[in-house]
Write a structure and sequence with these properties.
Oligomer: single chain
Number of strands: 13
CATH class of the largest domain: Alpha Beta
Order of helices and strands: EHEHEHEEEEHHEHEHHEEEHHEH
CATH architecture of the largest domain: 3-Layer(aba) Sandwich
CATH superfamily of the largest domain: Periplasmic binding protein-like II
C-alpha cells in the first residue's frame, strides 16, 4: 500500500473529491492500494512525513523544495492543466475600494498569508516586501496571520477580514469564475514568477519498480480512455515528467531572501 499526503490547498472535502478518482485509477493500474491522507497545514507534510508513514505526497513548489532538502524526497510528475500550463504563480491582491495600490499603502494594514511553507502564500509577499525596502513586515503592518488555505485568503480579503492577501492564481481564478464578487471587488497588485504546479514526490527509499509503475501510470493517462475521464474530473490535460531542475525559480527566491532550506522554520507564528 502507498500512503500519499495532500496539502490543504482548498477545503478538505473539495480536496479529497479531486484526488480520490486519481488515486483509484493509479491503484488499478499499478496493483497497489493507495490511501490519501489530507494534512491540516502545509508544514505538516514535512513534520509528519515519517511519523504518519507517508510514502509520498503532492507537494507545492516551496513545500517540495523544503522536503527535498530536509527529507530527500524526489519528484516524479505534475499535472498540465486544461489551458496547457503546468505552472502557477502567486498573486497579491486587495479590495478595489481599499485605496491600497502599492507597498506604501499597506503600512499599518492587515495581511493574510496562507502558510510559511508556501510559495504563493508566503515567499511572494516576503520577496515583495524585500524588493520594496521593508526589512521587517511584522513592524510595518498592523497585523498578519496565516489563513491556512489559498481559498480562505481570497475570501478573507473579499469579506474585509484582511486588507491584503497573497494566494496562488489557479485557486483565485477558479473562485473568480464561480463568484463574480471576486473579479468585481478585488484587484491584483503584483504576481510572482511561474513555479511548478503541485507535483507528486516519493521518499527516496521507495521501491524503484513501484515508483516506475506509478510514474508510467500518470504519464500515460491521457492515452487511455478511462484515464482521460479521470483527468477531466481532476481538471488536467495530462501529467508531465518533473525534475529538481524545474524548481530553480523557487531556489532563486530562497537565495535572494537569504533563507536556508535545511534549517528553515516553517511553523506559522
Amino acid at each position: 500500500m502507498l500512503v500519499i499526503g495532500l496539502i490543504p490547498e482548498q477545503n478538505i472535502f473539495k480536496q479529497l473529491e479531486r484526488y480520490e478518482p486519481l488515486a483509484r485509477y493509479v491503484a488499478g493500474k499499478t496493483g497497489t492500494k493507495i490511501e490519501l491522507k489530507l494534512l491540516p497545514r502545509y508544514g505538516n507534510i514535512i513534520d509528519n512525513f515519517q511519523s504518519s508513514g507517508l510514502d509520498g505526497a503532492f507537494f507545492g513548489s516551496f513545500t517540495y523544495s523544503l522536503a527535498h532538502a530536509k527529507l530527500g524526497v524526489e519528484v516524479l510528475a505534475r499535472p498540465m492543466s486544461l489551458d496547457n500550463t503546468s505552472t502557477y504563480h502567486g498573486l497579491i491582491f486587495v479590495r478595489k475600494d481599499s485605496g491600497i495600490r502599492n507597498a506604501r499603502g499597506m503600512k499599518g494594514k492587515r495581511f493574510a498569508f496562507v502558510d510559511k511553507a508556501t510559495t504563493a502564500g508566503y515567499l511572494l509577499p516576503l520577496g515583495y516586501f524585500h524588493d520594496n525596502g521593508i526589512p521587517d513586515y511584522k513592524t510595518y503592518l498592523k497585523e498578519t496571520y496565516f489563513a491556512g488555505t489559498h481559498e480562505d485568503v481570497v475570501y478573507d480579503v473579499l469579506n474585509r477580514k484582511a486588507d491584503v492577501g497573497a494566494a496562488k492564481n489557479t485557486v483565485y481564478q477558479r473562485l473568480a469564475k464561480a463568484d463574480p464578487r471576486i473579479p468585481g471587488e478585488l484587484v491584483v497588485l503584483t504576481r510572482s514568477p511561474d513555479v511548478p504546479e503541485n507535483g507528486l514526490a516519493f521518499r527516496k527509499d521507495i521501491d524503484p519498480s513501484l515508483r516506475s509503475r506509478v510514474r508510467d501510470a500518470l504519464l500515460s493517462m491521457d492515452r487511455d480512455p478511462d484515464g482521460k475521464k479521470v483527468l477531466e474530473q481532476f481538471g488536467a490535460k495530462r501529467f508531465i515528467e518533473t525534475t529538481n531542475a524545474d524548481y530553480a525559480v523557487v531556489l532563486k527566491y530562497v537565495e535572494d531572501l537569504h533563507l536556508n532550506l535545511a534549517n528553515y522554520d516553517y511553523k506559522n507564528d
